[in-house]
Amino acid sequence: MLNNIKEHINNRINRIILQNRQRSSSTKNVIGVSSEPYLDLIFNPFNKRQWNYLSLDHLLDYLIIRVTDKGNNFYIDSVGEFEQKAGKFFSDTNAFIELSYNPFNEILNNVIQLLNTLRGKDLIRKWQYEQMMPDRTKCELAHLYFNPKTHKDGIPVRPIESTIHAANTKISKFFDKILRPIFDYKCKDTTIIDVLL
Q1: Non-local CB neighbours of 193 within 8 Å, separated by 6+ positions
Q2: How large is the average pLDDT for residues 95-99?
């Protein structure tokens, strides 16, 4: 179905381009010889119906647009097909489960309660507490999304875990500042080889 939509849009665009070229050429007594399609929108602007036809507004409920995994391109697919690819990933890996409820408040409250307990028992200093305390107005639930791997056969999807605004991100950053120099020092003579087994 997506291929039919793409083909229909391409055919319609080519027809409009050809009509505009012919109109432009006949009024100027010139013949267009460019190998690339072009539109002279100053002299031959689209009418409202043509713009509406070329817009994606009427297709947005059926299409999904994503940045590709490699190549910084955009990938357009039908929502149903993209959901099938995500479903295949879930069934193949058994690495994730879909939650039936939103645990955001529970997670945020647990993180805040933990930090309050540590501060109350004087196990962390005030400045550490403030650095690790999540901002309730900026936090969001960590979530999973997918980018298409257009460089692979069948265009599978790559899972991306978005945790940048999660409730525990500030704690993670705090410990990273402490542990990274130690890790770098201890591993400076270590060669890490990335090998798939």
Answers
A1: none
A2: 85
